[in-house]
Amino acid sequence: MTxxxxxxxxxxxxxxxxxxxxxxxxPIPWIYWTDFLFHITLGWAAFxxxxxxxxxxxxxxxxxxxxxxxxxxxxxxxxxxxxxxxGSFTNFRLAWNILCGVPFMxxxxxxxGVHNDHHKPDVYGTSADGEYLPFATRRPAEMVxxxxxxxxxxxxxxxxxxxxxxxxxxxxxxxxIVWERASSLTIDPNYRRAADAIRxxxxxxxxxxxxxxxxxxxxxxxxxxVLPYSLLILWYLVAVTVFFLNSLRTLAAHAYRNPxxxxxxLAEQYLDSINIPGNFxxxxxxxxVGLRYHATHHLFMSMPYHNLGKAQRRLVNGLTDNSxxxxxxxxxxxxxxxxxxxxxxxxxxTTQRQ
Length: 354
Hints:
The chain is an all-alpha fold. It has helices at residues 7-10, 14-21, 29-52, 58-75, 77-83, 90-101, 114-118, 140-148, 153-170, 172-181, 202-223, 229-251, 266-271, 283-286, 294-299, 308-318, 333-353.
């Protein structure tokens, strides 16, 4: 017997929504290049300004804030790379890996496949989805632990590429374990890449070895006093802050209500996701590269980030009945976090009373 879908899912105007935005699906290369090159240049300039400025001076503090925000936006382009058509934007992918992915130990292969699975109706919200945990059905302490994990991620990434990469070549059986368990940007610590998703291709190895060599060279130069220890400390602080911001954004990206025991349709995925149009100046700082329109992105995962705002406005104003569409909208980051915390707390209180 087929499980009947909730009535609100049947009424969701998917066909009309697609019709309204069908001309917004083509990425414009110059926008990607201009946005990324501007912010990665700004980010590294601010990084070295922070490094060379007097401790706790206005220049250093201002440089740190600018470095975090600019490098955060640059790093989030890995999300776009996961959605751009395979074989396209080849030079852009290379530039992103050289200027951002490798220096932060997050080369693009760590997101390939993992994020695409997150958008599959058969995977989204299930135990096979590495980017989904049912936070709203668990204790609030698990959300706190997830955010605090940001302080360890840079260390894990450095160890993965500087230590585990050479060990993988010395101990071949270790390579499969590292690929399955330590080569994916996910929020589920138990996630494993599927056996048929293992890709020991040349491009992956190039990215992996580049991250290994860069990390090893910098650490060696620091140990030999050629570079100051403050370089590694600043790299860690910037990376931690970036991951901390992204963890808050991730908690605000979905409702996280599906316990993982059933599959969800595309419309259900959308209604379990969050749009936060927010303030056009402030919101893009913590939800950059179109991620403030995360629910709209789940409806049209191939839509380039620079068209998501336009799509959002068309759907709000153009749908014959937009009542289902606007259910995903939150007024801001605090509103989204407050709601999921309240749901989690309610579930926890109910469990304790039982």
